[in-house]
Amino acid sequence: MKLYSYFRSSAAWRVRIALNLKKLPYDCVPVHLLRDGGEQFSDTYRSLNHDAVVPTLVDDGNVLQQSLAIIEYLDETHPQPPLLPASPGDRAFVRGIALQLACEIHPLNNLRVLKYLKRTVGAGDDARNAWYAHWISSGFTALDAHLAASRRSGAFCFGDAPTLADTCLIPQVFNADRFNVDTSGFPTIRRIYDHAMQLPAFAQAAPGAQPDAE
Amino acid sequence: MKLYSYFRSSAAWRVRIALNLKKLPYDCVPVHLLRDGGEQFSDTYRSLNHDAVVPTLVDDGNVLQQSLAIIEYLDETHPQPPLLPASPGDRAFVRGIALQLACEIHPLNNLRVLKYLKRTVGAGDDARNAWYAHWISSGFTALDAHLAASRRSGAFCFGDAPTLADTCLIPQVFNADRFNVDTSGFPTIRRIYDHAMQLPAFAQAAPGAQPDAE
User: Fold this and answer.
1) Where in the sequence is the domain holding A30, given as residue range(s)?
2) Residue B80 region by backbone torsions, left for phi larger than 0, else alpha for psi between -120 and 50, else beta
3) Would you call A92 and B69 a contact, using CB atoms and an 8 Å cutoff?
4) B55 lies in the same domain as B100
5) Which end of chain A is less crowded, N or C, counting CB atoms within 10 A of the terminal residue's CB?
6) pLDDT at A162
7) Is the pLDDT of residue A164 over 90?
8) What is the mean pLDDT of residues A42-64?
9) Interface confidence (ipTM) of the complex
10) What integer is the mean pLDDT of B97-124?
């Protein structure tokens, strides 16, 4: 398997966690999102990923885009350990958390969105930092309440073993810390983050542990 | 089953399409996103959906959030007709398209984002309309090329029957038209849209056909 990745991409980090949890070896192909105007915009990379985003996974003739689709694929092709629970209701709970992070928070704080805000909307540094913090804070407010209220959550988002939901949560908390967003008001999220980062599968997938880390 | 919905919400429309394709009867509970500052912010609704977004599906004691998680749940609990293909590679293709729409385009043009751009960033009407069109155009450019290049696509995004991918694509095209975004440069997307809207499952899920339509 070949993973096109960028060390700081949280979408790529999600997939790296899943690969590590399942102990699947892979070749990491770094795609530098900033160098030379962005290597993701090259014709070569776009032929694999028309949207010019990371990650892309190439496995057995399949060229796969979108981190959550890739993780579901890995879970279907390498079921152990499972990243989704067994019952449909539990699976929807886990997917719901993953999608809340992947749809309601992360897309708004993507590199290309911050660039557009700066160059086209003309938002200054303070406005962009406030934007970044706003979407994390509002999303985490909802998610922390959701996790705290659910009988399904435990040491991780669902029960006591990591799932798809945690592959999305941990990179998002790391990003919040990196941009100095105050997350002290989200104790359940912080507890899960601290617990997950004790596991090599999460820590070794972190930006600083990647071959292309700067 | 009870679906908390808003006629213009494209996330709710995705689920309405899935329910119709599977011929599942449901009670529609309208949540007006604009009236009285937004009915989604009421304590009652937030107890079902901490994120204060539609849709929410209540089924058999399960309270489910996030449209794609809900559709996967419906596909697992009511497998016929399937909304995902059989092989892992094909499933990842379908999920990848659904997620590209749900993560790269739709979140940026959500009501709450447009509100924040206006009230907090101070973006005027022209800047907000340009923002709206930009994310649709850039996303559709990638998606149209992806669909046109793939041996997997047919009358629909995958083959000749509707899948999860189409439940996401059709509402997004409708929104583009509603905001006068030029989509003439995306012939494969337009062809799939025109084809899908011939089917009652899609047309009867459209905003204008909802009990709360204005």
Assistant:
1) 2-81
2) beta
3) yes
4) no
5) C
6) 98
7) yes
8) 95
9) 0.97
10) 95
Residue B163 in tokens: 């899948």
Nearest Cα of chain B lies from the Cα of A68 at a distance, in angstroms, of: 8
Interface test with A, best of B24, B51, B112, B189 (most A CBs within 10 A): B51
Q: Looking at A81, A110, A128, which one is the last position of a domain?
A: A81
**Nearest residue on chain B to A152, alpha-carbon basis:** B62
Q: Are B139 and A102 within 8 A, CB to CB?
A: no
Q: In the block, which residue shows the tokens 């529609």?
A: B28
Residues of A in contact with B157 (CB under 8 A): none
A143 contacts in chain B (CB < 8 Å):
50-51
Alpha-carbon gap, residue B172 to A130, rounded angstroms: 28
Instruction: Tell whether A195 and A120 lie within a shared domain.
Output: yes
Do A52 and B102 make contact, defined as CB atoms within 8 angstroms? no
CATH number, domain with residue A121: 1.20.1050.10
> How many structural domains compose chain A?
2
What CATH number is associated with residue B33? Answer: 3.40.30.10
- Within this chain, do residues A93 and A70 fall inside the same structural domain, yes or no? no
Same domain, residue pair B54 and B99? no
Distance CA B205, CA B197 (A): 10
Report if residue B206 sits inside a domain. no
Contact A89 B143 (CB under 8 A): no
Whole-number pLDDT of residue B131: 96
Distance from CA of B104 to the nearest CA of A (A): 6
| Banded pLDDT at A36 (limits 50, 70, 90) | confident
Query: Are A69 and A92 part of one and the same domain?
Result: no
The residue behind tokens 């984002």 is B113
Q: What pLDDT score does B36 carry?
A: 87
Are B33 and B96 members of one domain? no
The C-alpha atoms of residue B211 and residue A180 are separated, in whole angstroms, by 45
pLDDT value at residue B17: 98
The domain boundary, picked from B56, B81, B106, lies at B81
User: Is A130 found in the same domain as A183?
Assistant: yes
Q: Is B117's CB within 8 Å of A120's CB? A: no
List for chain A the helix, strand, coil content (%; round to 5): 60, 10, 35
Taking the C-alpha atoms of residue B170 and residue B167, their distance in angstroms, rounded to an integer, is 6
Q: Give B155's pLDDT tier (boundaries 50, 70, 90).
A: very high
